[in-house]
Amino acid sequence: MVKLIVISTWFQVMWFIAVLGTYQWQWVLLALVAMTYAISWSSLPVFKLFAVVLTGLFLDTLNVHFGLLEFSTWHLPIWLVGLWLGFAWYAYALFPVIIKYSYTIVAPLAGLAGALSYLAGAKLGAAEINSQWLTLSVLFIEWCLITVFVLRLFSSEKSIIVESNSAKIMLALILVLPYSGSAQATQSGQPADKEWQSWPIVGKADFSWLFFDIYQARLLSPDGQYVQQDDIAPHPLALQIDYERNITKEDLLSATKKQWLKLGYTPAEITPWLRSLQEIFPNISDKERLTYVTDGNTGRFYYLPLGEQEQFIGQVASSQLNDAFLSIWLSPKGEYPRLRAKLVGENK
User: Fold this and answer.
1) Where does the sequence pass through the membrane (predicted)?
2) What's the pLDDT at 266?
3) Helix locations, the chain, DSSP H
4) Are 34 and 46 a contacting pair, CB within 8 Å?
5) Average pLDDT in the 282-298 region?
6) Which of 103, 189, 197, 323 has the highest Cβ tally under 10 A?
7) Spatial contact of 72 and 318, defined as CB atoms under 8 Å apart
8) Rounded alpha-carbon distances, angstroms, from residue 279 to 69, 282, 323
9) Phi/psi at 209 (5° precision)
């Protein structure tokens, strides 16, 4: 039982590093996966594990091709490959336990768990799920089939891959990982947590409607410059918005949709983007701040409630959504060219 708890906790650590860290921590994930395989290499049916990995990657490739899943890269991300390697190892570790039960029990439960893990990953910003109920139904079927495939594949294997010493090593690493993970965050491609707060201001602008002040916006970058290219976010940026009136989540979503339509985005593009932002946007009160920080490809939202600490509230994994959101303020085709000019430093 102790071994089962250790290996399950170890896999969950890898899952959270993959889903929360995505592109930032993907090399940490691969290092942990390599360490995991090295610890238990002598008892691993390597070719069978790779068969599981290739099957999973093939199915995810199909999911992306048919528009069910969307990642911020044109190819499957490296962290997803690492996660499938981790899953194959974990499935083999669990095999002696789950083989005791009927396929009719194990497969549906695994199908549900698999589909929900993708949903959780999407909620945490690792990917985007389009046509949610259709996608979850397809994922459920896929994971039922993967489970049956895994059980049949490993049915001739007798060994249990985590021996006592290996379990002790993994337990020690589980205790150390929170500290090593925080160190890695400061070395990642995505701006380190709160590092952007020290960036110089590129420009700032006030937005008002009639006699009412709505918000003050500031654009920051590592060198205090905005490089104008066809790409809206060609380099790391932080957009800070200090609100000067109460605004609900629904109003934020409505205003965002309105601006996207004016920029020429189609309803088919906008609908999944709004669904993602609906999970992130808060209800904002007067004097509160919303900040969007991007590395030029993906982004993170931060919210500063009145009288509290600034907090991370959501991640954007799609480069398309990243550019579309920033286009509201930074696109030359935007509704408010004077506001844009001030933000990008043209009117200093």
Assistant:
1) 12-34, 46-68, 74-94, 101-121, 133-154
2) 92
3) 2-21, 26-39, 46-65, 78-98, 103-123, 132-153, 164-185, 249-262, 267-278, 319-330, 337-343
4) no
5) 90
6) 323
7) yes
8) 17, 9, 18
9) -130, 120
